[in-house]
């Protein structure tokens, strides 16, 4: 506790960087996963290649991906962009299947009714299918959020500052206080992301609250 009080400004700064490195890829990954998930659901011949192909991306070791990113996108090894791109890849790997499953769970009768009311394909996707699929997608997004918070800390090994830096600092000094603070901070950050996703889901799906009531 004493160590945290003496270094709370540094911890808050690292937490802010961690939020950016874990949160921005969530948004970017979701934006990319929605059209890919829709294609996997819409065209049967694309389902297996897209689901399996994106799923395999998650098997790439995070440290190796962080190190390889500069060679792929031409950045410096310590550039935070490397982590953002790598975490976006992991987020897409987790969410494509979730988006496809969520869209597949929308009843055909609902889609047919929307089409009969004059909804074109794109309008129906954003105004009918995605809202109804939101609970399923949100569940996958919560898993991706917790995963991102955890994996981002690995980037401290290559020198990218965030909460994982507390782990490397603690190991370097053979001092447990920064390690404990880093663990608690990561858990609280994951909880914050989870609560934010739950809150956003409730705002997007007000009919769910009415149904429960």
Automatic annotation (TrEMBL):
InterPro entries to which the protein is assigned, alphabetical: ABC_transp_perm/SBD, MetI-like, MetI-like_sf
Membrane topology: Multi-pass membrane protein
Compartment(s) of residence: Cell membrane; Membrane
Short name of any one Pfam family annotated for the protein: BPD_transp_1
Domain (ABC transmembrane type-1): residue spans on this chain: 15-197
TM spans (from-to): 20-38, 50-74, 80-100, 130-159, 179-204
This protein's UniProt keywords: Membrane, Transmembrane, Transmembrane helix, Transport
Protease found in the keyword field: no
Main location: membrane
Family of the protein in this entry: Belongs to the binding-protein-dependent transport system permease family.
Protein name: ABC transporter permease
Organism the protein comes from: Nocardioides aromaticivorans
């Amino acid at each position: 506790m004493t160590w945290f009080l003496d270094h709370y400004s540094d911890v808050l700064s690292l937490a802010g960087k961690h939020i950016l490195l874990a949160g921005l890829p969530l948004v970017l990954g979701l934006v990319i996963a929605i059209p890919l998930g829709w294609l996997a659901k819409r065209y049967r011949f694309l389902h297996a290649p897209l689901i399996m192909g994106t799923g395999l991306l998650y098997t790439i070791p995070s440290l190796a991906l962080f190190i390889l990113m500069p060679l792929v996108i031409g950045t410096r090894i310590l550039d935070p962009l490397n982590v953002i791109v790598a975490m976006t890849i992991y987020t897409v790997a987790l969410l494509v299947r979730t988006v496809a499953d969520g869209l597949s769970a929308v009843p055909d009768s609902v889609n047919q009714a929307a089409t009969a009311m004059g909804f074109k394909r794109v309008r129906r996707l954003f105004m009918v299918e995605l809202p109804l699929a939101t609970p399923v997608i949100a569940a996958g997004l919560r898993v991706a959020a917790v995963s991102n918070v955890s994996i981002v800390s690995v980037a401290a090994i290559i020198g990218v500052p965030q909460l994982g830096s507390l782990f490397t600092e603690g190991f370097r000094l053979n001092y447990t206080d920064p390690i404990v603070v880093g663990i608690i901070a990561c858990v609280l950050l994951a909880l914050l992301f989870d609560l934010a996703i739950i809150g956003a889901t409730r705002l997007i799906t007000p009919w769910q609250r009415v149904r429960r009531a």
